[in-house]
Amino acid sequence: MKAVVFDQFGPPEVLKIRDAPDPIAGAGEVLVRVRACSVNRTLDLETREKGAGFGVTLPHISGADPCGEVVAVGAGVTSPHVGQRVAVSPMLTCGACPMCRRGTENACLNLKILGVHRHGGYAELVRAPAGNALPLPDGLSYEEAACLPLSYAVAWHLLVVLARVAPGDVVLIMAAGSGLGVAGIQIAKLRGARVLAAAGSDEKLERARSLGADAGINYSTSDLAQEVRRLTDGWGADVVFENIGTATWDRSVASLARAGRLVTCGTHGGSQATIDIRALYRHHVSLLFSAGFTRGTLEEVIRRAGKGELRAVIDRTLPLAEAAAAQRYVFDRKNFGKVILRP
Predict the structure, then answer these.
(1) Chain-wide mean pLDDT for the chain?
(2) Domain span at residue 326?
(3) Which of 91, 140, 306, 342 is the most buried (most CB within 10 A)?
(4) What is the pTM (predicted TM-score) of this model?
């Protein structure tokens, strides 16, 4: 098969397309012909740059959320079947630890990630546990489906499961043009919230409004917290969807309303931050951290996308051979929505 491989950590130029051995589905596994795979900032870019602390084994094939059709199944697999269209969840969980047994498998004590701890979807073929291959509804394209696991399912877990966004809440979506951002806008609106979109360019804010955002804030040219207070008659945001890190942390916390909830799973803007403990407890603030999603959450967003309640936003689709250019484009924050690779 053709695959994009890197033999050393470094800039995008370390990504090379070449022939690689075809993977073979083992017992309990399926082999999927990849039709689309999205480009993700942390799991792809940071892993390629320096391993992102994941313990990546070289040479490596990235790609955490491939979609395609099943072309072979291993021993003991009864579902999905050969020919079935599927999205592959990257969350490789053990199913036996205390976190898995209580239904929070995204916090699995033995968690591994497709495209990080084993070869992923920057290739013509990928193997995965059969339980990680979720059927796709008719009418949902492979490109759209490739947007769902690491954007829409993560955003749903943070906003719905953790922050419990409810009708009437004011929700501030940071990095509104990112994959998580465009998902967050739609999910918060679906929950009946008033959405304030924040981004670093007016163009992205205009596009965020087309997705349903009620107002936009350019945090490169205005005081974020002050604008949030102005737009909410001094109240602030009931929920802040952060996912940037150090670069915007203080401003995001300052934008919270009394008893507000901040949720985050991203630190591409830096991972070190300080907090004023007294101010937070006196204002009854909740800081909620999580990573990934559960199978049930991914099934939910696939179902809703199939019904048209959630719409995947794709900035562009590029051939697999242009993986380096795709990663550079995402690194430069030029994208609005997801960038997709097609083998």
Answers:
(1) 97
(2) 2-147+312-342
(3) 91
(4) 0.96
